[in-house]
């Protein structure tokens, strides 16, 4: 029998007192929950996209089509598995295992709620927590790229290799932006423990403004708005979702890094992608939206909103809102060009993140060292300088577009228009050798083979 008790904030020591069978129950519960959420999210995405496209979605299998994802999941393992002859068999098998394992592991430090009573034992609705839980999450997301890169290399095919290389560059770029966006949360909360970050957002921090004592907003999504926006953008790039799904662009790379995968191995990649969506949504909920705590209007009228197992309702409601955002982006935005995507990550997200972190560092130092008047005057001066620099920064000159008439006039007589150089694909070495074998060698401008 599971009895709900008043939920309190867990501490790091509370996880050391769990008996082994409570830990086993929570472990199995997290695994089953992620599998069920994956099945739900796939069907949820199909129905939402169908609604936006004004067409019927899944509606045949199960009540209103809600068992369609379950049947797909049962069908995939029984399909024929085709392994390329040129594949590295060991790495080909390990790659999807890495992707799925890291996706499941990342969810182990996500808090679902406070401390409750389960079978007579006090335990937190979280599998485990350590002082550096956020770094554990970042490490798991960084390790996931190895599954993608190794799968592209081990397939022994060109297009999966290109997809894997794209993914490695994409993950590195947006992993840096995501990590920098979380630095602001470390600085504000003063801890890297996920449960303690949720606790830090329970109440706002007091500060003084011109002699008045005010309180900062409790959710870091409001207090650290630039970090929140950058994290959401980086999360979409990190999970390879549209409009950032460049590693598996069907129009360019057939299917990307998993082109040569089928049957259960393909299902593992599919499972890992959706679990990563759920993980980054839960991580964003924990860092910026108060975690499992109910929002302010609800707590104002219901004092027991955060007690017992009710915290699960608020946590998963926030996660579903973020998942809807992923689906909305896929249904509305076209895929970006790869150079635009990389330029946006390195030249926009990372510089803005660094400037924001420096600004927060100055605010924390000024809050302790300067008087109220000097502090706010200096902050205002910094904001004015940044605005002036952004206003008068010289814009890059775009190259003049050459009209079609000028291009036709510039081409040699008797020739045909050709595509621009950036669209020309160089011939492969095999094609160059074949041309060299068919073309006779020339000496002094004349062919060596002459008729006798």
From TrEMBL:
Region (Disordered): 411-452
Function: NDH-1 shuttles electrons from NADH, via FMN and iron-sulfur (Fe-S) centers, to quinones in the respiratory chain. The immediate electron acceptor for the enzyme in this species is believed to be ubiquinone. Couples the redox reaction to proton translocation (for every two electrons transferred, four hydrogen ions are translocated across the cytoplasmic membrane), and thus conserves the redox energy in a proton gradient. This subunit may bind ubiquinone.
Main location class: membrane
EC number: 7.1.1.-
Pfam families for the chain: NADHdh
UniProt feature coiled coil, ranges: none
Oxidoreductase found in the keyword field: yes
Binding partners and assembly: NDH-1 is composed of 14 different subunits. Subunits NuoA, H, J, K, L, M, N constitute the membrane sector of the complex.
Entry keyword set: Cell membrane, Membrane, NAD, Oxidoreductase, Quinone, Translocase, Transmembrane, Transmembrane helix, Ubiquinone
Official protein name in the record: NADH-quinone oxidoreductase subunit H
Domain of life of the native organism: Bacteria
Catalytic activity reported: a quinone + NADH + 5 H(+)(in) = a quinol + NAD(+) + 4 H(+)(out)
Residues spanning the membrane: 20-42, 90-112, 132-155, 176-198, 218-237, 266-289, 309-329, 341-362, 374-393
Family under the similarity heading: Belongs to the complex I subunit 1 family.
Membrane topology: Multi-pass membrane protein
